[in-house]
Amino acid sequence: MALSYCQTIADVQGRELTVHGTTAFPIACYFDDLQINPVPWHWHDELEAVVVADGTCVFTVGSQKHTLQKGDGIFINAGILHSVSEIGNCHLHSICFHPRLVGGSLDSVFWQDYLQPLIADISLDCITLSSSTDWQQNCMDSIEEAWQACVAEKSGYEFHVRARLSLLIWLAASHRPLTKTVPSEKSLRDGERIKTMLQYIQEHFSEKINTSQIAASALISGSECLRCFRNTIGITPIQYVKQYRIRRAAHLLTSTAEKIINIGTQCGFQEMSYFAKAFKEIMGCTPSEYRRRNAMGDSESFQASLPDC
């Protein structure tokens, strides 16, 4: 079954480590339980389409927050910085797919008339989807049908998936606002600075790092660094460092058999008491409890959490 929990870990460019699908079929579907795995700040070259299956969550895309409830959805453009947090027992049906799955070759009409204008539109970071608007409901129907087809993997499902995502792209491209709100040079500059600073953090999170070092990576002052983080992400650089370290530790706890004390050290925590305190503050339980509850090998509990398809 082409479905898994989402484990969002970014590489040294700030992109996800997760490979979404294969070269032959560049798409991956995820069942996101935000109570177990909130989605931290990241970005990727793939397009992302999501339907909220249960509960309520907040998608933060760039500097904008979007509260979504069961039955809502969102389409996120390529290369856009975003994160997701839970408000109440939220599950998501998520699809990440490379534009070439729908666009084909660069000289095709699909790429030139629909995909390229959509991806290149700097005013379009995302489209929120609501059942109260017919074309947006059609978008969500397409997302859900593609997701379910990937779950079932019946013979020829790839054609059905590509057809539904093609309709999604056509709807998104044809309903782009005629009057565009182009981001200011300042916000675009802040976005690029944040990506650079996140890259630095992700390269050096296991070391001792401070705000001055993070700021220097983007050739800005410490005060400017603080402003960029607060305006774009809503927290300080050091708060982000702590959160990132905890997310990396959580990933290692559920994907390896490494000793907890070694995981803490690898993730930049020199004192185990502080590691345990910070982990419980962010994840709501101790590292050992988290490992017991969320072991990736627990396939039976994962299967039980899936909807009937």
Short structural description:
The protein is of the alpha+beta class and about 300 residues long. It has 12 helices and 8 strands.
Describe this structure in words.
The structure is a single chain. This protein is α+β, with helices and mostly antiparallel strands and about 300 residues long. The chain folds into 3 domains: about 5-175, Regulatory protein AraC (Jelly Rolls), CATH 2.60.120.280; about 185-235; about 250-309, Orthogonal Bundle (Arc Repressor Mutant, subunit A). It is about 45% helix and about 20% strand. It contains 12 helices and 8 strands. It has helices spanning about 100-105, 110-120, 135-150, 155-175, 185-205, 210-215, 220-230, 235-255, 260-265, 270-285, 285-295, 300-305; strands spanning about 5, 25-35, 40, 45-60, 65-70, 75, 80-95, 125-130. Strands 1, 2, 3, 4, 5, 6, 7 and 8 form an 8-stranded mixed β-sheet that branches. Helix 8 (about 235-255) crosses helix 11. The chain is globular and about 55 Å long. About 35% of the residues are buried.
